[in-house]
């Protein structure tokens, strides 16, 4: 599918996903940031993903043009939403997201089935597993079942593109949270040791005088230990005040701006909570299965 946006001359591609007539799905539930779900039977309405809308400054009621099977038609944006399946929005074959040149759109199931001449059929299915089911066995069974129809193969949630990228990013953050604090604390401890050692060396005469007046080693050591605590306590407070001042300045200079990263975080939280169900282009009662499948994706054109 190709998309045309007024004021943007470069080519835009996208993916159309179907919504049930009631706007609800049992899996990968669409979360609306603004607007509403498309009305049943309306071929000129669509919900667009949040990152694409922010990249082009699209608002509710704006019109875009989509080319479906060679036919160009005007679509009105009635909602802006997020999907757990497309937290990390990637064009096929791309390594990085391009929110200006790749979009995710949702339209009514009946409308898309008619536009693609796929009444009573589907080319994309998301399934969920029971707790005691084997993902490997289900994948093999599903591949064998759909091989006759030209299925491209099923894969588990761990191999789903958006989930995989987010999982790797979280692993990197976890490693960074373990390495950098130790590194910085080690450097801070080393510098503090150098400073205190020099202070003590320059005050050897005063220490000798105190010991001559009867001060014990513990009392003198406690004095320098308090100095270490004072330095360690004052530095974070000063950094915190500086950070607060930077945050206030940033908010004052950028009040009202929207950040696409907020959409990613919100959608990921929903991805962790949306668990059970099935999304099909055909009615759900036409899919006869005896197994509960969990977060399993299948693609077939």
Distance between the termini: 13 Å
| Beta content | 15-25%
Q: What does the overall shape look like?
A: elongated
Helix content range: 40-55%
Read across the widest sheet, the strand sequence of neighbours is 1-2-7-4-6-5
Architecture blueprint of SSEs:
Elements (H helix, E strand, L loop, with lengths): L1 E4 L2 E12 L11 E5 L9 E5 H7 L6 E6 L2 E12 L19 E7 H7 L8 E6 L5 H12 L7 E3 L4 H42 L1 H9 L4 H37 L6 H14 L19 E7 L2
Parallel strand pairs: 2-7, 4-6
Antiparallel strand pairs: 1-2, 1-5, 3-6, 4-7, 5-6, 8-10, 9-10
Q: Can you walk through the features of this model?
A:
- The protein is of the alpha+beta class and 301 residues long.
- Helices cover 43% and strands 22% of the residues.
- The chain is built from seven helices and ten strands.
- The chain is elongated, with a radius of gyration of 29 Å.
Observed structural traits:
single chain, 301 residues, alpha+beta, 3-stranded antiparallel sheet, 43% helix
Short characterization:
The protein is α+β, with helices and mostly antiparallel strands.
